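# step 3/5: fold
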Amino acid sequence: MSKETLNAKRLLCPLPVIRTQDKVKTMQIGDVLEVVCTDPGVMQDIPAWCRINGHKVLDTLTDEMEYTIILEVG
């Protein structure tokens, strides 16, 4: 199992979801991806994408104007 971080700061919808999808394609089942964004819409968009595609959201964090979603590749 590996853990990687995706910097999706300063990207607006739908780019954070697209970049997340592209990154997950390069990862193995059970790997963990931390996605760091500045678009608050990702707090709904990425978890919805995870549900549709069989990935698991492990945690969501909000700090000032930064939003982090930690997911496990399914």
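# step 4/5: annotate
The helical segments are 15-24, 42-53.
# step 5/5: archive (pending)
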